[in-house]
Write a structure and sequence with these properties.
Elements (H helix, E strand, L loop, with lengths): L1 H19 L12 E2 L16 E3 L2 H9 L6 E2 L14 E2 L8 H6 L4 E5 L3 H10 L4 E4 L4 H14 L3 H21 L7 E8 L2 E5 L4 H8 L3 E2 L8 E2 L3 H7 L3 E6 L3 H14 L7 H4 L3 E3 L13 H13 L2
Helix pairs in contact: 5-6
Length: about 300
């Protein structure tokens, strides 16, 4: 039975890796990546600069910085009220280049996880781009500070940074003196899963919460690992996240943990410390729901 489950996992692994391959682009880990660093356009005329945000997180950041947009992404979620009548330019993964070019933006703002795919497309239509570091909360706030400086929104940016620092100080005080739990994070699609390291967004949240990722110490965001190797790590807690289709992924994980006998030998399983993460809080890129996500992690990691 174990071999059969392994074949199912291996078969689906290629699909999952393809779905998140864009997350391994080599980009700055501290702030937003300006593809035109010598340009001063937008700095002195922030109120007239034409901006497009191609992801919900980028739109949320622009809203909090009080920046107007001429284009915004299409999403099944909720966008800020400020942009309800703004032209939609397609999804975050596949913005419509023809619409983008027609808007004549000064800059297009996108997540750096999609940089390797989108940057050549923006260059082809001669549109300037800024890629925001949304792989971690700290990276998001570094990007916010950069945007505040570039578009004369330093006050708004500093207010957000101050709020973040205050929240984190209070949050860390909750766990002061507590032993750091060893955590395994599995990222799945129906039929397959891989391991998320501390370099992924969910991994960065676990690290902020004081957890110790059992696959720490690599430059990669995601790793392929078999159950025998995972067993040697002996995590205290197992977190199961979804890259897409959360209901199907939860069922896949339930079947995997039921049918693959090796999971029954994990202490985390025996102790009932296996948790399915809420996909609305634990997505693929940083956003302003991180506070709720950290609060949700608290009882999972510290068993209270």
């Amino acid at each position: 039975m174990k071999r059969q489950v392994k074949k199912i996992v291996q078969k689906g692994l290629c699909m999952l890796l393809a779905g998140i391959a864009v997350l391994t682009a080599s980009v700055s880990l501290t702030a937003c990546v300006d593809q035109h660093p010598d340009s001063t356009e937008g700095q002195s005329q922030a109120d007239s600069v034409r901006l497009v945000a191609t992801s919900p997180a980028a739109a949320q950041i622009c809203d909090k910085l009080e920046l107007d947009l001429v284009g915004v992404c299409q999403t099944s979620g909720t966008l800020p009220e400020r942009y309800k009548d703004v032209t939609q330019v397609g999804t975050a993964m596949s913005p419509d280049m023809e619409i983008l070019k027609s808007l004549s933006p000064d800059y297009v703002l996108s997540p750096n996880s999609l940089q390797s795919d989108l940057q050549p497309k923006y260059a082809a239509i001669q549109v300037k781009s800024l890629f925001l570091n949304l792989k971690s909360v700290s990276g998001m706030y570094a990007s916010i500070a950069d945007l505040g400086e570039k578009f004369n929104r330093q006050q708004q940016a500093q207010a957000m940074v101050d709020e973040f620092n205050t929240f984190m100080q209070e949050y860390k005080n909750k766990n002061a003196g507590k032993e750091a739990p060893k955590v395994l994070i599995l990222m799945g699609l129906p039929g397959s899963y891989i391991v998320a390291t501390e370099n992924s967004y969910v991994g960065s949240l676990v690290e902020m919460a004081g957890g110790q990722n059992v696959y720490a110490g690599t430059d990669e965001e995601f790793l392929s690992a078999n159950t025998e190797d995972i067993k040697t790590k002996e995590p205290d807690v197992i977190l199961r996240a979804s890259h897409a289709m959360p209901e199907q992924v939860q069922q896949m994980f339930a079947d995997e943990f039921e049918k693959n006998d090796i999971w029954k030998h994990f202490a985390a399983v025996q102790n009932g410390r296996v948790y399915d993460l809420d996909s609305s809080l634990f997505g693929m890129s940083a956003n302003f729901s991180y506070q709720q996500a950290l609060e949700a992690l608290q009882p999972m990691l510290y068993n209270n």
